[in-house]
Amino acid sequence: MPRSLVPATMQAAVVHETDGPFEVLARPVPDVPRGHVLVRIGASGVNPLDTKIRAGVAAHAEHPLPAVLGMDMAGVVVQVGVGVTRFEVGDEVYGLVGGVGGLQGTLAEYAAVDADLLAHKPKRLSMRESAALPLVSITAWEGLIDRARASSGHKVLVHGGAGGVGHVAIQIARAFGADVYATAKPAQFDVVRSFGATPIDYTASTPADHVHAHTADEGFDVVYDTVGGATLDASFVSVRRYTGHVVSALGWGTHSLAPLSFRGATYSGVFTLMPMLSGKGRAHHGHILARIAELVDAGRLRPLLDTQRFTLGQAADAHARATSGRAVGRVVVDIA
Fold first, then answer.
1. Residue 180 maps to which CATH number?
2. Quick check: keyword Lyase in the entry (predicted)?
C-alpha cells in the first residue's frame, strides 16, 4: 500500500503514568525504518506482564511512560520497509513486537514492526485467536525445544498446565512425541485433558507423590515451571537423575540448587523479552512463530481464549479481566 493511502493518524490507547488509566488518543502513524513493516493491527493480546508493566512492578520489563502498551498482535502488512523480503503488502502476520523497552505497543491501530519478529499468522485462526499466541508460544518453545530438547520417549511435567504458557507447552510437548503431565486445580482438569495432558492435583499431592505415581520414582525427563517461587523448588526434586532438565519462565527468586545438584540434573531459565530489549536474536522469534503456525495449521495446537471481548476503548476492562482470576483462557482486545 503506498504511504499516501495510509492515514496520517491512528487511534492508540496511551497510559501516561504508573497504574494510570488508558486514554484513547490520535497519534501519528509511525514511519517505517529499514527492516521494518507497517502493520494494521487487527487484535492485541493481553498478557499478565502487560498489567505488571502498567502497574510499575516489572523491573525486568520497564517501558517508559507515557506509552502504548501491549506486546502481542496479529494484523495485516500495509507497507514494507527497505530490505524486507519475507513479507508483502496484504500478508497476514502475527508476533511479539512491542510494549516493552520503549518499543510501541499493540494497543493501537498501526505499528512499525521489526520484520524479524514476525511470521505469517496461522491460516486456521482468526486475528483474535492468533494474537493470543506469540508471547506464550515463544516462551513455551524456548523452554521445551531450545533448552530441554523435549522429544518422543520423554515424560514432561508442566506446572500450571491451564495457564497461558502452560496450555501451549502441553501441546508443543505432545507434538514432539512426549508423554505430558500437568499440575492444575481439579476445576481445571478438563482443560488440561483437552490439550492432551494427564492432570495432577497439586493441591492434594506432593512432588514425591507425582514422581512415585507417574515415573516409578525415576523423575520426569523435563519439568517446565511456569509458576515460579516454591514451584521452581518443587521442580528441582521432581526431575530425573542425571539426564533430567528443569526449565523456568519465572526463575526470578533466590533458590537453593542443592536438590537439583544432588540429582545431577540441569536447569535453564527462559527470558523471552531479551531479543526485544537487546535487539539481538529477533529472527529466532520469527522462526519459532513460523513453526507454531505450522503446528496450528496441522491441527496440533490451538489457543484457549476467554469468551469476553473488548475494544480498544475497553483496554482497562481487558486488563482488569486478565488479573481478575475469572478469565478462562487468554484475553484479547479487538482493534480493527
1. 3.40.50.720
2. no
